[in-house]
Amino acid sequence: MSETRELYGASTGNSIRAAIALAEASIEFTPRCLDLRSGDQRAPEYLALNPLGKVPTFADHSVSPALVINQSNAIIQYADEQAPGRLSPERPSAQRYRVYDRFYFFVTDVIAPSHSAFFLRQTGQQDASAPLDRRALEHLLMAEAFLEGEYMAGDFFSMADISAFTFARSVHGQVDWEKLPRMTRWLALIETRPAVRLGLQAFESAPSLRK
């Protein structure tokens, strides 16, 4: 673990995606677990890093001033830039832009409506949240057509797979996987990756914010 790089988060999709990206890029970091139910995200020392009090937050203290990134997708792009060729093709190409296209499809058409639905449920608007949940799930299922190769953007693992994976895993019980043979194979393949397993477990036994 690296004390110079820290990833603050919890067992949420956004935090896990960031942890997977860093692990896939072989960027050493120390995970710092926030107990969201106890309000760790509102602690003054965390708000100094992330004024919105959300997770995740990545802090690199090896540079001065320290680099702080608050958005999970920006952390993924940081990991991509630090390890060229790991999360997207190293050079501009049709394949590289396919990765970006698929990555943003999952970010904007799948994950974003799901987050909006979650917010509505938190405010007691269950009826309003249902169409957004359906939309997110319907768009995820469309990804069966993406899998002409082993991965979401072709024959190589990329940030597109990271953006899809945690959401697919979170709705696993809502999907008829027998109708999605390609996605079933893809999900099993992603789950075997050592860096993915590290990302999934990053916050399970991580030091807490206050330790």
What would you say this structure looks like, in words?
With 211 residues, this protein is an alpha+beta fold. Helices cover 49% and strands 8% of the residues. It has 2 domains: 5-86 and 197-201, Glutaredoxin (3-Layer(aba) Sandwich), CATH 3.40.30.10; 94-156 and 158-192, Up-down Bundle (Glutathione S-transferase Yfyf (Class Pi), Chain A, domain 2), CATH 1.20.1050.10. The protein contains 8 helices and 4 strands, in the order βαβαββαααααα. 36% of the residues are buried.
Give a quick set of tags describing it.
211 residues; Glutathione S-transferase Yfyf (Class Pi), Chain A, domain 2; Glutaredoxin; alpha+beta; 4 strands
Cα end-to-end separation: 16 Å
Our count of domains comes out at 2
Overall average pLDDT: 94
Q: Strand order of the main beta sheet, please?
A: 2-1-3-4
Number of strands: 4
What is the string of SSEs from the N terminus onward? EHEHEEHHHHHH
Discrete helix count = 8
Q: What sort of overall outline do the alpha carbons produce when their principal axes are compared? A: globular
What CATH calls the topology of the largest domain is Glutathione S-transferase Yfyf (Class Pi), Chain A, domain 2
Strand content: 5-15%
Biggest sheet details: 4 strands, mixed
CATH architecture of the largest domain: Up-down Bundle
CATH structural class of the largest domain: Mainly Alpha
Kindly name the structural category: alpha+beta
Helix content: 40-55%
Q: Low-confidence runs (pLDDT<50, min 5 residues)? A: none
Q: What is this structure, in a nutshell?
A:
It is built from 8 helices and 4 strands, in the order βαβαββαααααα.
